[in-house]
Each structure stands twice: as structure tokens, then as C-alpha cells.
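Late entry, written up from scratch paper. The run itself happened at the end of the previous shift, but nothing got recorded in the book at the time, so transcribing now.
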Amino acid sequence: MAGVGFELKKLFRSKKGYFQSVKAYSISAVVTEGPMILNIVMLFLMRYLLKSHGATVREQDIFLYTITYITIFSLIFSNSVLMFIDRYVSDCIYQKQLDRIMPAFFGLIFWLILIGGGIALIYLFHIPADGFYRIVNLVQFCIMMIIWAEVSFLSAVKQYTKVMVGFASAVLVSVISAMLLLNFTPLSLVMAALTSTCLGYLVMMLMFLQQLLVYYPGGKFNIFQFFPALDKYKILVGVGFFMALGLYAHNFVVWTSDFKNQIWENGVFCTKYDIPTFFATLTITPMLVQFVVSVEVNFYQRHREYFDGILYGGTLEDIRMAKKNLVKTLFREVAQMMEIQFFVTVLCATFLGNYLNQIGLDQEQTSIFRILCFGYCMYGLAKCLIILLLYFEDRVGALIGAVGFTASSAAFTWLFLRMDVVYWGCGYLAAAFLTAMYAALRIRYFLERLEYKVFLRQPLFYQEERGVFTNLSEMAAKQEEHFKEEMKKRYQDKFEKRRQRKKFGS
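Output as recorded:
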């Protein structure tokens, strides 16, 4: 995302005045956290429309349960490969092989829909709902997975205004279609709301797809395009999966509590905990924007200077000075980011908590929200530090942090479930804090031994990693070649027979 940060930073340098600064920050927030923000905004807009049309509590719960499941599980499935695909796209851009990007995109979409959509279909057939409900939810789930992937590929397109237009269009289409479907069709209130959100996301998906097709050159369609890179970066799949799973592991544990909302036997969630969670998620947007437009950009410049000195014949003194600047920049930027976010977190916990209490959250939910504000603050720090570990190719360290975060989030949340409801968010806070401390210590350990890691841990002769995914890709390529040869031979035989018939017929 450093490339995105460079482009976004130009917005801040080129825009003058309060309004333009707000616009620049808004664009930055949309690019970095757009889908999640949109999900939450649309969730509460639709819930308001349902209430205004007299929806029962159960109908509102069904809608909330459906959108919650689609959001969470589409993110977990797609995030499993997005960290890997970010690296793959970066390598393609660096190697000037842009024609490999769109085939990789369509291949990724194929596998996401095949695996994720297949699992969703199995689940939908095990809930007592009608066919139309199943179809709409399966379509929206697949669309959401595609959107998460599109945003990752859009990071290099740099058409950020059009990205914002895509998000705004999705909200507009959803609200207008909801009003029409709720007032002028025989659809139930729940299905009208779900259909309208599906239409909104469909519009956004198509607008983003159009941007990708315009920007990236076409290439040969190949669903196995990125498979060889999976052998090289397979650990990134684990990092992405466990970071996303850990983000919601505490919700899954709370869903087993006595406060759960049970829609069906295998359809549960918990409004008492999930609603404060969604609001608390939004509070770390400033940190993630700051990380992309400042921390990652400034750190990347020092990171590049250090390794350029090694690769292009810098003196030992130059390399040591570059390392000193690298370490200084890293800790300074992270400290500044945390100062800003901690200030925002305190404001949100104090004032936003009071406001949410006035508009409908009860005292227990408000208490959970305040604790989770600090929990997500720690999670944001942990996530940023784990990404920085990947800059140093410490994939194993990043994976340990991600797995530890998931396990500790579930374990601590389970322990705090035994306490009063107002302390529920403390389990997530403890897990995020420990993960952030681990990642900080891991970075410090790595920096202290940076020369050893760079000069002595590298192989004398580089050899491309090969594994099952490379073998599958090569096998598919051979089968494709064999199929083409067979089709060519059949066509030639058919043509020859036709020519012979014409010859003897004449």
C-alpha cells in the first residue's frame, strides 16, 4: 500500500484550505477502509428504513444477522488471499508485467466464488429459508468477496475520486431501490431491504471492474496464473486469514453466550455485542489512514535507501547511517500515529459513547463500546506492526503474531464471558495489546540483527521455490496445450474429410 500512500500524500500537498483537507482525508479513508465503512453505513440506513416501515423486531434481527454474516465471512474468505495478492501485484508492477494482473484477478475471483461460494451455498441449504432469500444472499456474498478483491487491485489505479463515486453510487442505489421496493412491490420488508443492498453492491462492483479493465492491459485468461507465486508467498495466506479471523473471533465466542440472538438453529449473532463492535471498528480509521499516507510512505523511503545502499555499492558508513535513519523514522512515525489515534480513541470513548447511549444503545452496550475503542486501537497498532514485519520479509514472525492474536482473542473473550456484561470487550483488548507488544518486540529484535538477517541468512544461490501450486499450474498449462493440439488436429481432420468428400463428389 506504500504506492497508494505516495499518491494520497500528493492530495494533501496539492489541496489548500480546510474543505480541501477534509476532502483529501475523506478520499484516504475511503481508499483504505471504504468497504467496511460502507457496510456499516448501509446497515444502519436500511435498519432505519425497516423501522420506519413498521418492521418487527424479528424482521430487523433477520436483516442484521444476514448483513453481519455476509460482511464478516466475505472478509475472512477474501482476506485470506488479499495480503498475498497485494504482494503478487506489487511484483508484477515492479517487473513491468502488467499483462499478468487481470488474469490473476479473474483467477482469484474464480477460486473465491468456487470455494467461498460453495461453502456459503452449503450453509444456506441448512437454514429454514425460502429459495429467493438463499439466492439473494449467495449473490451478495459473492459480490462482497469480489469487491474486497477489487479494492486490493484498485490500489494501483490511482483514480481515487472515481472510487469515491463508486461508494456513493452504491449507497444511493441501495437507498432509492429500498424505498421503491418497500413501497411499490409485494416483497417482504426483509427481502426488499436485502435486495436493495445487493443491487447497491452490484453497482459498485461493476464500476470498480470497469476501472480495472480500463487501467490494466488484458492478458491471457488463466485461473492458475498466480499459483506459482503461492509456493513462494504461501505464508502470507496464513497471515491474512488469521488476522481476519482474529478480528472477529471475539464475536464468534460471544455468539455462544446467553445473550445471543437466535434466528435459526444454526443462525446466531449478538446485537448486544455486535453493534458496539461495528461502531468501535470505525474509530481506528484515522490510524489506518495515517499509516498509509505517512508511516508507510516515510518508512518505505528509508527502507529503500538502506537496501539501495547494500545493492548498489554503498560504503559501510553509508549503510550504517541509512539503518540509523530507518530505525529513527520507523519509531517516530509509529509514535506519532499512536498519539493521534489515542487522542481520537479517548474522544470517541467519551463523547461518541454518550451520543450512542442517547440514540439507543443501553448502558451495557455503551460500556462495551468504550472498552472496544481501546481494543481496536491496540488492534490497529498490531496490524500496522505486522505489516512492517513483512517489509523485512519476516513472514514467520508475522504469522506467529496473527495466529497468537486469533487464539488469545478467543481465549480471553471466553474468560471474560464469565464476568459481568460490561467487561466483555476486555478480552479483545488484552489480546490486541499482547499482539501489539509481541510485534513491537519482534521488530526491535529484527532491527538489532538486521545486518545478520540481510547478509548471512540469505542463500548463496537463489532458487525459485517450487511446490504443489507450481506443479498444478504447469500441469494445467500442459493440459491446455494438449487440448489445443487435439482441437487443432480434429479441425484439420474434419477439414480434410470435407475436402475429400467435395473432391469425390465432383
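Residues 1-6 have pLDDT under 50 and may be disordered.
(Scratch paper discarded after transcription.)
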